[in-house]
Structure formats: C-alpha cells, structure tokens
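chain below, 110 aa
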Amino acid sequence: MDIRHAVGVQAGIPEDTLAALDSYTESPHFTERQRAALEFSERITRDDQEVSEECFNKLREYFSSAEIVELTFIIGYQTFASKFAKAFQLAPQGFSQRDPQGRPEQAVAA
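prediction:
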C-alpha cells in the first residue's frame, strides 16, 4: 500500500477515498466506472477469482478497448512489481511518508 498511497495522495485523491479501497463495492467514494476498474483489478490479481464475462462487459461500459489494454498492462506491471519485491523481501521505501515535494518527512523536519 505504500506506493499506492503515495501516488494517490500525489494525484490528489482524498485520504478517505484511499482508506475506503478495501470496501470499494459499497463505498460512496467511488463511481461505477471506478468500481468496474477495481473489480477487474481484483479479479486479475486474486488467484481465487476469474475475470468473468459479466465483469468484462461491465468494464466495456466505461472503458474503450485501448483503455482496457492499458489498464490490464498497469495491473500486470504492478502485480509483477509486488511479487518481485516480495521475492527479495524488499521493505516499503517510505513513499507515503513524503512531503508534497517528494522529500522524506524526516528531511523536512531536519
């Protein structure tokens, strides 16, 4: 969640929206378009779920074919990065503890 949070904050996503990601299906913080993308993401990354025809049809309601390809690439890349970090036991780099200029908070306080 470290990089997801950092990028989200930098992109201007409110903290309460980021905190609601685990409950995106019920949360009022997400649009139907966002819910479709999040469900697709979840189904791709979880081994116990498949990307159903219903899920893909919902995705097509909100995204063009090119956008679906890009979304799939980004999900795959982030999954790869996560598995790579896990394999080498890489600790979070503290990206979510940075000020708006990208400096670690410790450097700002010093």
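Helices lie at 2-10, 15-19, 32-45, 53-62, 65-87, 105-109. The longest helix spans residues 65-87.
thats it, cya
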